[in-house]
Phosphatidic acid phosphatase type 2/haloperoxidase domain-containing protein (Cupriavidus yeoncheonensis), 379 residues
Amino acid sequence: MDAPELTGARHWLTPAQALTVLALFALGAVLLFWMIPLLLAILRPLVRRLDAWRATGVAALSKRNADSHERSSRLAAVTLRMLERDAAELLLVAAAGAILLACGGALLWLVDGIAEDRGLVGLDHAVFAQLRASRQGWLDVAMIAITELGGARISVAVGVAVFAWLAWRRAWAAAAYWAIALLGARACVVALKFGLQRHRPASIYSGLESYSFPSGHATSSMVTYGFLAFLICLRQPWRVRVPVLALTSVAVAAIGLSRLYLGMHWLSDVAAGFVLGLAWIALLGTAYITLHVPARLPAWQLGTVAAVTLMVAAGYLAAFRLPERIEQYRQAGALSARVPAAAPALPGLPSSRSAGAIPATGRSCDGRCPALQSGSPPR
């Protein structure tokens, strides 16, 4: 017997309309990524001019060090080693630094916004209420299937398969960075969840995973699929990069949207997960390019390994786990419709939780939904 759907759900979106929106989003992503090579072509004369200035600076600094009878300073040695890299690589490092600063600032702004109960919390509640009122049966199933693509089972399966393939090809540096990307991102999520202890609007999890900030699905999907796309696109032509990046963007955005639709996260949780994942990719990707001499990996082989693993893991979940997951999510959604939504809360900040709100972990189903405290992999 199906769990009751949320009260007030309206059939505002048909499958055909959903596919149309998805296709338009994918087309927009393709067009956006095709703008990058055009921008690089415009900037190429500037890069050449910068490279000429860099070469002049290297020659002058080397001559000065050679003419000096004293030992060159450490600063001069570091500067010389830095200038020995070409201008394009230096610009890449500068861009990565800017991304890291922007992501760090955004993450701090999100934490401050929920801690101080500012307009961000109101936006979280507005988005949650709107999506909760828009739930439909077929869309529930579609969103649960999509959200599982960012879950622990599929992320671990893809992570192990890609690591094994890289080790088989003896691409040890790439394998090490891949492992650090996945394990490091997970450690960051666990640390932030433990430190902030913000409650979910609704939950099918217990323990540490009952906390929502940041979204583990959003972070995991961004790092897993984003860093995989980085490895596939490395030293590839743009005709390979554009479709890979567009497909990755669509998949990651869909997983983030599914977490909001299913009521497992607030909007700021998902945003924080994306920001954290992007910062992690920028940091490790830049380190991999600048500290090593990465060879071009066979894009089709790597992509095939990841795609086949994903399809096998997704097929297993669809055959054996999806009905149970649908039941769990629907029961959690029905419960959140009957109980006032828990306001985002941080330890020691009572103002961030409205009076009478009940955290997701403290809600009771009166014995009607024991599956809510399941042993499913946390996220």
